[in-house]
Amino acid sequence: MASLLQRVLGGCQAQKGEQTVEHAEGGIKELDVQVMVSLVDDGCLGPDWDRKAHLHLDFSDKRFRLSTFKPRDFQWARPEKKGGERATGERYVRVDKLHSLNLDDNDLTNAVFENSIICAKDPKDNSKDMTWFRSLRILRMRNNRLTDTPLIQLPRLKELYLSGNSIEGIPPLGLLPVLEVLDLSRNKIKTLSEDNLKAENILQHLQVFDLSSNQIGSDQAGPNFRPSEFLDVMMCLGKTKGLTSVQLQDNPFCLYFSEYQLVVARFVKDLQRLDDLHFGRDPGLRETLRAQSDSIFGVDESKVKDRMKDMDESYELRKKLCEKSAPYVASPKTPSGADGAKSPKPKSGGARAARAQDTKDVKLKYLIEQLDSVLEEPANASSSVREVLAGANAVAESGDTLSIFKGVVDRAERMEMVATFVQQIVTIAERHKDTRTLLIRTLARFCCVPDYHMSDLCLAALGSMAKNEDTMNDVLEVVEEVILPPLSDMQLEDKRCGNIIIGLSNFNCDMLAGKLKNVLPQLCEFTVANRTHLERNGGGPDVLMLQIALSKLMLTLVQDPTNANMLLNDHKDIISAMTKDVMSKDHFLSTDHFTNYVTWTKTLQMLVKNVTESAKKDCLKLWVKNKLHTELALRISDVIGSGKKETEDLGFVVCKKVAAALDIIFVMMERDEVLESLLDSSRPEATLVPNMLRMAAEEVCDPVVLGACLRGLNIVLHSSKGEMFLEDIVAKLKLKESNCILPYIDRKKFKDLYTLSEKHYAYSDTEQENRTGGFPSVPDLNGVTNPIAHDTMAAIVEFLHTFSELTFSEPKDKKLCEEVAEKLDKEGRDTKLFKLLEVPSDQVSKAVLTCLGKMDATELDDEDIGILLSLLKPESVARAEKLLSEAIQKLQKIVLESDSLRSRYAPLVLKKVFEILTNNAKRKTYGNKEQEESKRALSDKAVTFLSVAGSAEYAILRKYLRNKEYVGTFNEVLYYEQNENSYDTGDVCVELTWTGRHIPYLFLCMSSDLALNAYRKQAFRVFARVADVVAGVPLGLSGYR
């Protein structure tokens, strides 16, 4: 059968009054009967266009610029009877046998192919699954104006081409069960999720998957798409047996994670083409890629995901480096083919195109060559890296830092070289663990080069490595030995000094505090000098940035109690200066910047927390004498205008300062005279509580202010004067009625909370413009990563918990609390709180677990238990000991004490607890008393859980405690307790569990590769346990020793 249009090539015109078919500027915008008739008149299609069933339709000719595909005077349909024309005179074009439809190069803005919209149904046809385009196999809609995620429900479609649009999401593939080709290249897709590919059977037939030239991994995509998420997607795609072509190049993610091709080649088994690589032309290339993948990610498939999670942080660093110098980024070379010939390589941005002819004269280029050789020939890693370190030492010792750029004149090229050099170091450090220490020292040495962002990027790389447990100690060692000592001889005007201070301030590593002790006097001196300069002369962004960096370093410094006491005793001028700035009316009311003010208040709070008790009393006494709380309370009254202003009218800067001022007042409320003055209605500062209530009761309160107000109201309610304010708090916040607070953790106000938190987080002193608009839609709870939202949600949870735990002497007050708690229960407080456990925040989860308190296991469903289980993350033992302890304790109560849940979930919980116990034991905490104690507390919770699970009451679980996979775990816990804990640290008595009552397991601890030292207490405990078992001492009596 003839097609509707035989590629109309132009030249044909049809009369329509005095106009032609081409009367519409730019081409035909809409199909109607008159247009079709005019094309018939000019011989472009046959007269039976409205009677025949068509196999192919092509509207891609330049004459068409269709803005809609729904015709005006006729319908796409399957006619009721032969002839196609109804009694009403309407015309129907048969498309029920249509195989291909070409709509390329039009102006379509939506692509909805679904029964109820574009596929008009015969009114007399009651078929529920009938689609007028039911036979369509190929759909082309390239180079249109599609923006929304297409809704295409075509059950027989095999090929879908949507490239060259502005689509931001992947179509629902579950509606396309036999799809073989999916081309989404050259769009604006920002995310790629495993959820896109989970629908049943959607991966059975896919052969070509093209997502090239999109925006996956861009800043607009948010922080969620990282190497670990990419791995999930590739593992899902790997289930498709016929997938032969994957195109992902020219996405930002591929630039930041250059190993992505190795991941694809590893998991997509039948791959023939990957980007520009053709495996059919080079049969050995696929195996070579997989071999290199094994060397980087490991051979064990089960551990690849852990390796990917480790790479997530370095991915963020690579991203920053690429943003510094996007054109000059080195990518790892594609490995050689099986025959030794070099396979095509991804573009590296020209990094290797400008190699020096004499590398001995151009030192940085020579060092880049050496690092290139490591990427090409991993066997040479150690010698090449040592040579690079030798070069770094020579540069640092000579002092002639510009000599490394000799022979390269162009400034942009020098900056590109620096970015490439640092990224190479980061990449090699990830791949070759044995070279990490040398590479970290190399970065530290090059911190002496202040030009072309060398020191900035080196410090950024070290900061990222400091967040990784495997490299943190090495980084802190070079900071102490290499980076900090030169500060003693530097002046603040020295560019190197400023770069080091700014770089260290971005480390965000608590352990850095102990290393700053030796430069505390210099930091104090720099802070005073820079502050004086700002007061006298003002300053531009550079001076402000340096002051912010110094204040952040002071905050880091006082996190160490020794530093805090030293600062308070020997540098009181700094404390006075900070207090003066916090009290300053000009600083508080200024809308120019906020970071210094907020950081100073946090520093003062941390100082009071970490000094000795006597020093704390003296400090608070001095603040009370200077009426710090009174001044701050009055400042808050000034800015909110006695009830005339809403917090949203104050602006982000003022809101941040109000919250910071409230937090420092709360610290001072530990002193009775401060609390009494703030609650005494005759005092000027007594406006504080009414102001907090008014702000918290707003329709939508700023989240930073809301969190601070709720923390303050909690303090008031728990104080001896709490009864005075209970009724007022309940009334103003409508806790017995509609409730102003609970909706913030529900969908009613959660959108406002999240959006404002995102705007707060994006707002900075140095970039205040164009940072508070264009935010993505509100994610599900498991996608809320904003720390401001976390802080506010935790404050809300703690405030709601107050009414379940408060007890007052007056019966009416007690009754009021019970009424509020009952009202919260009716509004589904516990259900809403349980959902908050999905939020990826230890702070929120801990607050929720504390608040939930007495949970009835019979009311929990599988989803609820799954949420609780998701909190047991063995990899987070170093940062979430308290949360893990709470979760283990809660699961012990729910899972073990419920008959229905015990058999279903206990084995999985036991496995998780063993993994947490093992990972916790392996933590390197020797000599750090604070870390050792928090580590032991978590281990105690885990051992308690295992002991209870092995008791006679739950004897049915004992078989799981003797699982063979736990043999090595049992040995490891004792071995690492012996080697990673100080001798006087409390015991982790895992041998007192049912697992430890098995003699073969106990003997294994003395004979395995991880054999215990016979002279250490762990071995003595093991032998004592053997004696207990042989003597028949009951399980519960082992503690008599």
Describe the largest sheet: 9 strands, mixed
- Distance between termini? 94 Å
Rg, rounded, reads 34 Å
**Tally of contiguous helical segments:** 41
How many strand elements? 13
Q: Structural class, please?
A: mainly alpha
Helix content: 40-55%
- Uncertain segments are 1-24, 81-87, 115-130, 325-362, 767-773, 1037-1041
Looking at the structure, what is the overall shape? Answer: globular
Adjacency order of strands in the biggest sheet: 1-4-6-8-9-10-11-12-13
**Which assembly state applies to the chains in this document?**
single chain
Query: Quick check: average pLDDT?
Result: 79
Portion in beta strands: under 5%
Could you describe the 3D structure shown?
The protein is mostly helical and 1041 residues long. The chain has 41 helices and 13 strands. The strands form three sheets. It has a nine-stranded mixed sheet with strand order 1-4-6-8-9-10-11-12-13, with helices on one face. Helix 2 links the parallel strand 10 (208-210) and strand 11. Helix 2 packs parallel to helix 4, helix 6 (301-324) packs antiparallel against helix 9 and helix 22 (628-640) packs antiparallel against helix 24 (652-668). The longest helix has 24 residues, at 301-324. It is globular and about 100 Å long.
